Amino acid sequence: MKVLAARKHAPKGAVLALFALCLPVLFASLGLGVDMGHMFSQKRRLQIGVDSAALAAAHALRRGNDGQIVAAAGAACEANGFDLSSGDLTVNRPPLAGPKAGDSNFIEVILTEESDTFFLRAVGIDEQVVTARATAGLLFSGGACMLVLETDDEKSLHINGKAKVDLKNCSVYINSDDSNALMGEGDAEFTASDISVVGDYYGDIFDPEPNSDVDPVDDPLADLAEPPYGSCDHDGEYQIDNNRTLSPGVFCGGLKLTSSANVTFLPGIYIIAGGGMQIVDDASISGENVMFYLTESKDYDYKKLEFSTNGDIDLSGRTSGDHKGILFFQDRDIDDGEMSEFKNDTTGDFSGTFYFPTTTLLFTDKFKVVDADMLIVTSKIEINDDVIFELNSSDPLAIVPTSLGQARLVE
Question: What is the pTM of this model?
Answer without folding.
Answer: 0.76
